[in-house]
Design goal:
With about 200 residues, the chain is of the alpha/beta class. About 25% of the residues lie in helices and about 15% in strands. The structure holds iron/sulfur cluster (2 copies).
Length: about 200
């Protein structure tokens, strides 16, 4: 597999500009031949939110990617399995579902399909206490509650006495790291920590 990584800066979310940048990136990275193949585009839809919050892949980037792949002859599917994923989930608030409708790409409901990924390599399991996990920097916490709301395992609570002091119930945590992604205050690091909470 090609391991070249190329990054380009865009001035604004403008379809043609991003399309051209994707095209340039594809060429530099010697992207694979996709003509006649099914390609799944997996945008980041952490939670189906307004693109202005900048926590999801912008719908214009998704549209440019879909159109680029379609121009190469690919059949494009789009989907993600966000932290909060109900049976009726569609990326509607983010505008990604509408992009699928506009471009003719197929929205994939991950709750209805099962994917099996075979690998010859075995996984090395670390004892849980040595795993990377959310570690809170209480001094930065503003008490916005975003991490508590997004946590799919209900593993985070606010301290009943101390203001802006979140607590983790470690054995509930599934290490999805969504809490760290939504925290706008740099109050959640993801690292190894052996002792304490
Ligand atoms: S998201 Fe960050 S700032 Fe908000 S409550 Fe959680 S740790 Fe505190
Ligand atoms: S990493 Fe753990 S605490 Fe953070 S959102 Fe995921 S399950 Fe909840």
């Amino acid at each position: 597999m090609n391991s070249i990584v190329t990054v380009r800066k865009c001035r604004e979310y403008e379809l043609h500009e991003i399309y051209n940048l994707i095209s340039e990136i594809y060429e530099i990275c010697q992207g694979p031949e996709v003509g006649g193949k099914k390609v799944l585009v997996k945008p980041n839809i952490l939670t189906d939110s307004d693109p202005a919050k900048a926590i999801i892949t912008h719908p214009v980037v998704v549209e440019a990617m879909i159109r680029f792949l379609q121009s190469k002859g690919a059949v494009v599917l789009v989907g993600d399995s966000p932290a909060i994923h109900t049976r009726v989930f569609k990326g509607e608030k983010s505008g990604i579902y509408q992009v699928c409708q506009k471009t003719g790409a197929t929205w994939v409901d991950f709750t209805k399909k099962h994917a099996e990924i075979k690998s010859g390599k075995s996984r090395i399991k670390f004892p849980r206490k040595f795993e990377r996990r959310p570690v809170f920097n209480h001094r930065n916490c503003t008490g916005c509650l975003e991490c508590i709301e997004i946590c799919p395992e209900k593993a985070i609570i606010m301290h009943h006495d101390k203001p802006n002091y979140v607590l983790l119930t470690d054995n509930k945590c599934s290490r999805c790291f969504c809490c760290s992604e939504v925290c706008q205050s740099n109050a959640i690091d993801i690292r190894r920590k052996s002792f304490g909470v």
